[in-house]
Design a protein that fits this description.
CATH architecture of the largest domain: Alpha-Beta Barrel
Number of strands: 9
Distance between the termini: 44 Å
Order of helices and strands: HEHHHHHHHEHEHHEHHEEHEHEHEHHH
Mean pLDDT: 95
CATH superfamily of the largest domain: Metal-dependent hydrolases
Structural class: alpha/beta
Largest sheet: 4 strands, parallel
Number of helices: 19
CATH topology of the largest domain: TIM Barrel
Low-confidence stretches: 472-484
Length: about 475
Amino acid sequence: MGFITEAFLLHSKTAKHLYSAYASPQPILDYHCHLSPRDIADDRRFRNLFEICLEGDHYKWRAMRANGVPEHYCTGSADPYEKFLAWAKTVPKTLRNVLYHWTHLELRRYFGLEYLLDEGTASKVWEQANEQLSSGELGAQGILKKFRVRALCTTDDPTDSLESHKKIRKSNLVTQVFPTFRPDKALRTEDSARFNEWTDKLAASANVDIVRLGDFLSALRRRHDDFHECGCRLSDHGLDYCYVEPCAEDEAESIFDALRAGKELESSQSARFASFLMFFFGDLDAQKGWAKQLHLGAYRNANSRMGKLLGQDVGFDSVGDWSQAKSLAAYLDRLDSAGMLPKMIVYNSHPNNNYVFATMIGSFQGGTIPGKMQFGSGWWFLDQKEGVEWQLNALSNCGLLSRFVGMVTDSRSFMSYPRHEYFRRILCNLLGGEMESGQLPDDEDLIGTMIANICFDNAANYLALPAVLPNSEPSKVPPDNCRK
């Protein structure tokens, strides 16, 4: 008998009722993920449990390394079952790590398996899960249907062709799939050769000959337009902190000319050029009514030796400790003063900064958009139970939890959709407990409606994605087909 029961994480009668009546019935709007649009367009079928469970999952690789598993079984060329067995041996050692909860939620929700995964159960879990994968019902599109994903937004570089997105739009897939505009490589000027290689790709994708800064900005604007036409309504940036150094256009043009000439920049020049572009991107987003996402403060690729060996995004990152308040305030203030402040979702990676982010957004609310400035859900190292509670508490204490746009998977894995359930259970447990202790009124409709809104409707209203509408009856399971 597994421990993922109906009462999982729900410690009161009221919490259980709130979850079953108001949270669980909601569909999913996964507005920030890193799923492959090509996998969705091609309805990728997973040949075995390794491909769907471990391929590309750096959360699990980190745990395996901490358990003394050789890299050969993480990112290396070991046999798929050997890699899965190495993971199964690691799982019992992850007690009190969110991976223990996620792993057993995944086995239960995808395959109906209630085993505790370990070395002894690995072979039957492997065989039974693979048998279900071979049926074809748990391909990429089948998973989206199974978890009632109404819409999702992938994360896409401006040079991406968007062909997979166009293919998806022409398919019969019920889930709406939209790109997200993430132009981080435009800001990465520490290596002029790499910057120029990317700029040449941008020129080709935008059909613009890029010689001067004006050409560069025109190409970015054209791709921004192309993304909008494809349904994109969000941008995203992964930054150490906000770049706010003053940089006039003539200085930015001089810096750009130096880059195109193959010269290496000083760090101060790179920061000023990034600042110029971030203001430009803010203006583009505001003009189109997009929401801008800022993922701030992660210390990426800390292990240079492994970075050279394996590349980026393979699990050698950590929480960073940059000062955030002054630069974030300056960036928001500059956009606001120019009348160019778009809707914005700001994600924090350091728990010490929760109150910085929760209070800073309150200084820039206003206008006719409820919750225009959002403190995003617990991100990366903070998407575990304690981190989720910290974010919910900081937002509640300093702003309006009722306007929160909810959880995202922020994942490359098609096995990640139970993370929405995980968040919803934590939310209902928090509110249900406070109802029973008298900290909140014993008003099911009041609290339940807020929960349903946080789980889906707030994001649907806030993002205004094409053909994605709020639910008219939040406590009922909506129809699968949301196309107009």
